[in-house]
Amino acid sequence: MSFFNQDLDSLLKEVILLLQTSDYASSSLIQRRFSIGYARAARIIDQLYELGFVGAPDGSKPREILIKDIPENFDLEKYLQDMVLLKSTPTSEWKRVKEAMDGHILKLGKNQKKKLVTLDLEKYGNLILVGSELTNISKLTNKILSQLVEEKSPEELKFIVADPSSNQLEIKDGDPHLLTPVIDNPGKLVPALAWLSMEVDKRRKAESSEFNLPILLFINNFNEFNYYAAAEIQDRMSRILKLGRNVKVYCIISFDYLDPNIKKDLFVSVGAKIVFKPTTEHMARNNGIPESIELTSPDEAILETMYEGRETFSI
User: How large is the average pLDDT for residues 164-179?
Assistant: First the structure.
């Protein structure tokens, strides 16, 4: 039974706050701390999993705690309301993507020889884009998003889209590709990432991934979200970036700049990066592509991939 058809346990919020000072979560821990029976403690663990606070079951081992740094004034009811917006479709009802449509080839622009530059998102799993408002990064993000919406039906690709400006990206609420309305603030992004992390875990536990409907997480201007909820968002993103690509959960994330305060392991599982011209040489080094400082147009960028090296292109 889905968590959303159950009643919240009255101790749930207290347990969530308890986990902030614990190294793991288990039924026995909850039993001892709250002097309750095993059945109730096990039900609370199940609810914590459905809400995305703890990891999937692994035999008799304690559960991994997935969300840390919860404030004491944490509003559990509001968190649940935001999470309910996600309209998860049971795996068994998903249509199999046609073999010819399995690839997600992004058409980025043309290189100096006027040849088309593309990126196979399925091959690399995750893509980050780095560029300030002085560049045309928003033009490229919209180009990528529009292409995927036009080429893929809602039965072939679903989106979770986060855009703090709510008007930079051209996809709008009501588009059938969207699993949830466009997310415009960190308070709504955290439960969405919790749901997606839980979905990744469920897919990894399944015997076959053949019928998994591809999901693309598209975050515009990650820095603005991260500024308000860094710990919760980065912990979730690390897990999704690391484990999602093998179960058809992909990520495209844009940044104003790569903040050195962002955890380094966030980028370990990113196989492709696009960098526009930064404003300083220091930022160029932080972005990982010093040559980007030499770009001469707001339409120019450098694509760097794990297997194919670097290539300069224009949108």
Answer: 80
Residue ranges with strand state E in the chain:
105-110, 116-120, 126-130, 158-162, 215-219, 249-255, 272-276, 300-305, 309-314
| Burial zone of 248 (CB within 10 Å; 0-12 exposed, 13-18 middle, 19+ buried) | buried
Q: Contact 34/180 with Cβ under 8 angstroms?
A: no
Which three-class secondary structure state does DSSP give residue 19?
Answer: helix
pTM exceeding the 0.85 threshold for the entire prediction: no
Scanning the structure block, which residue is given the tokens 């049971």? Answer: 90
Nearest Cα residue to 239 out of 4, 62, 45, 64: 64
Interval 191-213: pLDDT, tens: 889 889 888 888 888 766 566 78
Residue 225 to residue 126: CA distance in whole angstroms: 18
Confidence (pLDDT) at 72:
67
Take residue 54 and report the two structure tokens written for it. 């703890």
Domains and their CATH numbers in the chain: 3-84 (1.10.10.10), 93-314 (3.40.50.300)
Nearest 5°: phi and psi at 81? -60, -40
- Distances, alpha carbon 270 to alpha carbons 104, 170, 189, 252, in Å: 16, 25, 20, 10
